[in-house]
What does this fold into?
Amino acid sequence: MQAFLEFLVKGLVSHPDQVTVTPVPKEGMTVYELRMHPDDVGKIIGRQGMTINAIRSLLLAGSAKKGERCVMEIVEEKPA
Amino acid sequence: MPAQPKATLEQLLKTLGFDATVEEHPLEDGLFLDVKTEDSGRLIGRQGQTLSDLQYLTNRLLFQQDQNVPKVMIDVGGYRSKAREALVQKAKEAVEKVRRWGDVVELEPMSAFDRRIIYAALKDEAGIEAQSAEVEGTTKKAVLLRPKH
It folds into this structure.
């Protein structure tokens, strides 16, 4: 699932080098934390959340096939 | 770099854990990618939702690679052609009802893509007027059929 998210998210943004995907185990499931350039967050969310909903839907299909439970979250770093 | 539709979709499916083969066929206004996999039900999703998400994301990826790339249409295990037939059938039944009762018939809310299939099926039906109406709580619209006066 990590490879899937990295391939997809890096392919959708303008700054692929700044994309990181960090798996965090949590209560029997895996939370994938996405970090990226602030300008790219909107691209990944998409109009009315369309893009992020589509990513979540495929993530769900893929993880169900593997018998895993995965979710993803975008982590926005607060400017210091 | 020119966009790589087939390779991009294959990579998506592989990283998602689906063993699949992808065949490319040119279309008039784009490219048709036909996916064959053992687990097609999972990839299609309820009412084809997962399949349309896959198609949407593939097109977004390709657009990022090359802004002039033609749109791809993805099918898994013949789902789209079956769904299209079912929609055409639904349109025909609705036309039949309008002719018989002279009342307005409302189809369930559908995406623009599905409505396009309905309108294409209605094109040659004389005496039928159709329009789409907003439905609360969804971005989909309902097609209303009524007799033409």
Observations:
- Chain A has a mean pLDDT of 93.
- Chain A has one domain: 2-74.
